[in-house]
Amino acid sequence: MKRILDLIVVLTAGLLLLLPLVLTALAVRLTSRGPVLYWSDRVGKDNRIFRMPKFRSMRIDTPAVATHLLTNPEQYLTPIGSFLRKSSLDELPQLWSILCGDMSLVGPRPALFNQHDLIKMRTDCGVHALVPGLTGWAQINGRDEVPNEQKVALDHYYLEHASVMLDIRILVLTFVKVLRRDGITH
Fold first, then answer.
1. Are residues 40 and 61 in contact, defined by beta-carbon separation less than 8 angstroms?
2. pLDDT at res. 184
3. Is the predicted pLDDT of residue 183 greater than 80, yes or no?
């Protein structure tokens, strides 16, 4: 049921968001050199690595680490990078990952391949068995501001309580938080 809902929502959203997708791609292309999309290696269900696209908000010389590990992340942002991140427009290409089945609308956010501590903690408590999501329980409870231990506890809560109603609640709260730009640190 969850997969069918993902497909219906993604196909509908893809049509509705076609113009913003094209305009965002054009804006990225015109404001910085390099590709429009940034493909990062992410950890999916059962710790399988997959390639996840985002609109590129950072310069092409940015180290491949989680943004919070950069000394001064702002120095790596493209001219429109901050806007893309705060508006969450950089996340729109992940609709492709949902369509391909690597991600779901709701689940734990996929870790970077080199976030070994987060991957281990998720594996130890069984969260690795979930399909990662565009948004999740941890994202609506702090987003970028949540330390890994708390993030894993929130992901574990989702594992234990996953349901269609909880997914709908998470999607609605995500929409509200994106509009308010809550929990974004850069």
1. no
2. 55
3. no
pTM of the model: 0.88
Q: What percent of the chain has pLDDT over 90?
A: 78
Handedness of CA 169, 103, 181, 64 (dihedral sign): positive
* Tokens read off for 90: 């950089």
If you count DSSP H runs as helices and E runs as strands, how many of each does the chain have, helices first?
Answer: 8, 5
- Using the predicted structure, report yes or no on whether residue 12 has a pLDDT greater than 70: yes
Distance separating alpha carbons of residues 54 and 21, to the nearest angstrom: 11
Q: Which has the closest alpha carbon to 57: 95, 28, 34, 30? A: 28
Alpha helices (H) along 32-163: 81-87, 94-100, 116-124, 137-140, 148-161
Report the alpha-carbon angle 57-88-77, nearest 5. Answer: 20
What is the enclosing helix (H) or strand (E) of 84? Answer: helix 81-87
